[in-house]
Recover the amino acids of this structure.
């Protein structure tokens, strides 16, 4: 049974295939038996109400949280052996920003995987990190202490660190939470340029109104998998209603789903 | 003084020099591992470890005294101390993971219990009537005066090994200290790294037994890292500075204690470390108290100067005493508060600057929000010339009509 799953070409080509993933806090499952095969080269949003287990699912997939059952495959192999293909952009509040580090120090952390213990961090490592900072428009802040950054700038630094890993799959946990409009635009640009390079992106997203503009695939989650697929097919009034269980008013739903209606008319 | 100078220049004989070197290596490794422990916010754990060494130390002493007649064999004592400290650590870990108690309360419970047990065992030793029990107090406060060459070599070698181990693990430690979850996605398991960190901390404690004594070794893992934090905003640099401070404290402490017999080494090392800490607290160029006060004063004067000049330009009355003083000092107003020609010119410039900045803020609110000096710096120092030119040209029409 297991072997046949891995032989499935959709799974062996997917940078992150999640099979029957369950995570629980105590006796309460927060993610229950979720299957999701990330399409390679896609820009996928994970959407669902608060407490739907979006972040938890990703953390379990990344080996940060222990999973109760299920397997996580990267290109058909267990994640633990393939974690070098995956970069992670955590939520901003996951670290202490008083930590003695400059912006460049944080980005260089993205290169640690390639450095052996006897190697010192050299100029070309710093140049690589600077290049990543350039891509998120933060090169002028390289020497700043990280505590002096605004929320949006902190988020960009984390994105730059993930860029430094030059991974095939980048997983982002609410990258747009609490950032200014300019940063949101800059991040979306970076994500789209990564997609153009053939990279895959998986992104927990909370702003339903921008799902259509930013993403091409979507996974609707509320503890269980509600729907998944291309945005046009999976992101509908019906699936949203199911995922949010009446927490969205019909007016909100209309506004979120409307853009597709107008584009179809055109 | 003379004796101290001789000790400082390593000219009091092979043994003392060896001990000094050992203490310096110990200080360096304690500073390094302590920095990571500090960044991981677990400094209290080192306190638990050091107190938990006492029962193991005393049990090892009793066992060796019964078997060989003398309990003062350093490697044996170190092993005993290490085992009981490891037991203490396990206890702390177990309690904080399996129960609702936090790590701090677990540390408190374990630390006092094991230390109490150790003190009871010391009284047992005192009643035992065996050789060398007087030397046992040396492990409480440190005693390097009568140290054997072999002991000093052991301490120096172990400390050197520790230094190398911390150096090898620096990136893993750093990743976990900054963000354990991100570290996990990089294949660095926080649990394993934490374990290694504590193991190295335990090793430092055990090696430091004879030099600083088991209680005061805590100071060597906490004070130098905090000192290092004053001098840099970069993580590995902080670790390096902490190592230097630790080595310096060891050097000063051991040489001071060799001045007169009976001076305890541990307290002197700790006092030296604290001395370095106070120096840094006061005089470090960026985060030191003197520098911060000076910077605050400079900033305050700058604000008052700008506000005063703007008031002059707008012909508003100035009441603030400091503002008046600052203006007077610059020769912008006379003693009777009437603006001088120089002052009027400066006021016109300030007003012009202010208008450029406010125009910039209204045109590019996002970029302006990224600048953090409230527009007090000259605009041409902060923005590229072409931007300033375009701002100037936007301002000119209203200026001309005003003239």
């Amino acid at each position: 049974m297991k072997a046949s799953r891995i032989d499935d070409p959709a799974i062996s080509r997917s940078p992150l295939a999640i099979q029957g993933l369950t995570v629980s806090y105590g006796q309460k499952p927060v993610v229950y038996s979720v299957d999701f095969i990330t399409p390679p080269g896609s820009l996928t949003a994970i959407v669902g109400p608060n407490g739907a287990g979006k972040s938890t699912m990703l953390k379990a997939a990344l080996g940060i949280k222990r999973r109760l059952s299920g397997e996580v495959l990267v290109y058909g192999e267990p994640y633990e052996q393939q974690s070098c293909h995956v970069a992670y952009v955590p939520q901003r509040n996951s670290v202490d920003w008083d930590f003695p580090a400059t912006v460049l120090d944080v980005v260089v952390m993205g290169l640690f995987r390639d450095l052996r213990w006897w190697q010192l961090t050299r100029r070309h490592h710093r140049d690589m990190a600077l290049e990543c900072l350039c891509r998120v428009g933060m090169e002028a802040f390289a020497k700043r202490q990280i505590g002096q950054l605004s929320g949006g700038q902190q988020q960009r630094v984390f994105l730059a660190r993930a860029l430094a890993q030059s991974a095939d799959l980048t997983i982002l946990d609410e990258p747009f939470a609490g950032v200014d409009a300019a940063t949101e635009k800059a991040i979306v640009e970076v994500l789209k340029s990564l997609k153009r390079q053939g990279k895959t992106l998986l992104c927990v997203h909370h702003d339903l109104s921008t799902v259509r503009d930013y993403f091409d695939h979507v996974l609707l989650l509320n503890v269980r998998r509600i729907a998944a697929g291309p945005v046009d097919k999976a992101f509908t009034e019906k699936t949203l209603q199911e995922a949010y269980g009446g927490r969205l008013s019909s007016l909100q739903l209309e506004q979120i789903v409307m853009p597709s209606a107008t584009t179809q008319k055109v | 003084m003379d004796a101290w100078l001789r000790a400082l220049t390593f000219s009091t004989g092979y043994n003392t020099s060896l001990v000094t070197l050992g203490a310096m290596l110990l200080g360096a490794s304690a500073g390094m591992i302590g920095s990571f422990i500090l960044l991981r916010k677990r400094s209290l754990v080192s306190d638990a470890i050091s107190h938990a060494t006492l029962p193991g130390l005393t049990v090892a002493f009793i066992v060796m005294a019964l078997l060989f007649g003398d309990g003062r064999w350093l490697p044996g004592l170190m092993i005993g101390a290490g085992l009981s400290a490891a037991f203490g650590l396990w206890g702390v870990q177990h309690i904080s993971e399996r129960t609702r108690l936090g790590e701090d309360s677990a540390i408190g419970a374990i630390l006092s219990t094991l230390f109490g047990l150790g003190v009871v065992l010391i009284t047992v030793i005192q009643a035992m009537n065996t050789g060398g029990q007087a030397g046992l107090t040396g492990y409480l406060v440190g005693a390097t005066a009568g140290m054997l060459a072999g002991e000093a070599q052991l301490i120096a070698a172990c400390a050197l090994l520790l230094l190398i181990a911390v150096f090898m693990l620096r990136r893993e430690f750093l990743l976990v200290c900054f963000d354990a979850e991100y570290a996990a996605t990089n294949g660095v398991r926080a649990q394993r790294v934490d374990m290694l960190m504590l193991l190295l901390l335990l090793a430092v404690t055990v090696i430091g037994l004879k030099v600083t004594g088991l209680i005061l070794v805590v100071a060597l893992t906490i004070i130098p890292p905090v000192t290092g934090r004053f001098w840099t905003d970069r993580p590995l640099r902080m670790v390096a500075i902490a190592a230097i401070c630790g080595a310096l404290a060891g050097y000063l402490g051991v040489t001071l204690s060799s001045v007169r017999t009976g001076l305890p080494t541990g307290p002197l090392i700790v006092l030296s470390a604290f001395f370095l800490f106070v120096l840094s607290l006061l005089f470090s160029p960026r985060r030191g108290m003197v520098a911060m006060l000076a910077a605050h004063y400079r900033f305050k004067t700058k604000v008052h100067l700008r506000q005063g000049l703007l008031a002059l330009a707008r012909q508003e009355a100035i009441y603030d005493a400091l503002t008046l003083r600052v203006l007077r000092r610059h020769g912008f107003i006379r003693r009777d508060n009437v603006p001088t020609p120089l002052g009027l010119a400066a006021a016109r410039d300030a007003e012009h600057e202010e208008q450029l900045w406010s125009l910039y803020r209204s045109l590019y609110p996002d970029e302006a929000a990224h600048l953090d000096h409230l527009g007090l710096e000259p605009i041409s120092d902060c923005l590229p010339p072409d931007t300033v030119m375009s701002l100037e040209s936007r301002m000119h029409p209203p200026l001309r009509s005003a003239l």
Notes: Chain B has two domains: 2-284, 290-395. The CA atoms of residues 139 and 209 of chain B lie 6 Å apart. Residues 2-284 of chain B form a domain with the ABC transporter involved in vitamin B12 uptake, BtuC fold (CATH 1.10.3470.10).
